[in-house]
Amino acid sequence: MTSTVAGATAPADLSTRDRVTQLLLERGATTAAQLGSALGLSPAAIRRHLDAMLADGDVVAREQTVRGSRGRGRPAKVFVLTEAARVRCGTHHYDNMATAALRWIARTGGAEAVAAFAADQVAALEHRCRAAMEDAGDAPLARAEALAGALTAEGYAANASTIASGGQLCQHHCPVAHVAAEFPQLCEAETAVISRLVGTHVQRLATIAHGDGVCTTHIPAQSGSTVTTVRTDR
């Protein structure tokens, strides 16, 4: 049995592989067990797909990052889409001219000029998101949920969730990840925007540009603060 994808005849299990790719795109680093559970596949079946994707260079395997104390034994392996796979998914639409332009700005104006350029670039995004959050109220976590919706409308595939230490904003797409890998000022400017829009200080814990599967921003469980302390992992 075959199915047609993008006008070509392909094996039927390509649809399952596409579902694996979509889950990795949405969730970032994910274990084989989590993927199998979400897709209703046996360990052997999910391993077969992951092995094929590893062989094709679509995913890489790494040890799971565990923050804080962890139990005995080695951390579970997690799988992450490679940059080449993300490009094919349409998650990066960047131009080499952007990198060349930023290098020129850095040479002629220094790091401060790059930071000013980055702030100017996200100003319009901040304006649009602020307008979309008018009815979100003042609570940081409620504002984070509204911001996630606004960012999703901008193509960032964002979501917000509540965790024990506050809230978490995740962005599964980054249109400038390739450029931001060289110029972290882009991430810093975006994080500052998130802080101002949410209305409290935030911490950027992970970024796609830094090699993580998802851009993750932590929102501490405290209200009333308008400090804009920004930490971007490099």
Automatic annotation (TrEMBL):
Coiled coil spans: none
CDD domains: HTH_ARSR (cd00090)
Top-level lineage group: Bacteria
InterPro entries found in the cross-reference section: ArsR-like_HTH (IPR011991), Carb_Metab_HTH_regulators (IPR050313), WH-like_DNA-bd_sf (IPR036388), WH_DNA-bd_sf (IPR036390)
UniProt xrefs under Gene3D superfamilies: Winged helix-like DNA-binding domain superfamily/Winged helix DNA-binding domain (1.10.10.10)
Entry protein name: Transcriptional regulator
